[in-house]
Amino acid sequence: TKKVHELGIKEFSIIIPNKISIKNENVISSIIEGANLSLYDFDLFKKEKSKSKEPDLTLLTSEKDAEKIIKISMIISDAVRFTRDVANLPPNECPPEKLGEIAKKMANQNKIKCTVFSKKEIKSKGLGGVTAVGQGSKNEPRFIILEYRNGKKEQKPILLVGKAVTFDTGGISLKPGEKMDEMKFDKCGGCTVLGIMKAISELKLSINVVAIIPSVENMPGGEAYRPGDIIKLFR
Q1: What is the dihedral of CA 212, 34, 86, 204, to 10 degrees?
Q2: Do 23 and 63 meet the contact criterion of CB atoms below 8 Å apart?
Q3: Which of 86, 100, 157, 191 would bridge with 142, disulfide CB 3.0–4.6 Å?
């Protein structure tokens, strides 16, 4: 798949060897997801982007069931690409407020209910952990709640929680400078939950799911919390 892309070929086909059963769901999903994800490249901030467009993938099969598996695999792998795009955003492009906006946009596109609490609302609800970790930064925290309800009304929802520290310096307990730039990845838990909710909705699963993403930027400053402070996580 990568070679085809390098050569600028617009369309290609994958023929499954006779020894491998096309009816095997794992075989089809592995091929589709592998091909789709192998083309991933985070080039949002590159001036010179790849001139060749991603090729269209066709899996040659006469099995009708395979079409369904292909569709599912594309939805899942596209959700992974979405997750990676958000996770790779640098901290100046993705503070907690921006992550809240990304969540709202994704939710609106997929008919998911989205609620984002501001710093004031977080504090008033007694969510002291989020307040404390985020209080040293000028970029205010956000508390994101996503609700997907496509199951029976009496069905208890599955709960997903993903931490999204958009940049984690360590606060007063400053981390070593080496690889500090990678601390943007401390938001990957929350990004993964966003991707999961996107996939769940597009797959139209008959379940109820509630996702919680507390998002902060942990920075040193005059308002930063200190080791030894007593913090009430809940009221």
Answers
A1: -40
A2: yes
A3: 100
DSSP H helices, 90-217, are: 96-109, 119-124, 128-134, 188-202
* DSSP designation for 223: T
Q: For 116-150, write each residue's pLDDT tens digit.
A: 999 999 999 999 999 999 999 999 999 999 999 99
With contact defined as beta carbons under 8 Å apart, do 143 and 164 qualify? no
Other CB atoms closer than 10 Å to residue 39's CB: what's the count? Answer: 16
Closest CA to 208 of 162, 141, 157, 143: 157
CB atoms within 10 A of CB 48: 6
* Structure confidence by residue, pLDDT tens digits, 17-74: 777 666 678 888 998 999 999 989 998 888 776 665 676 666 666 667 788 888 999 9
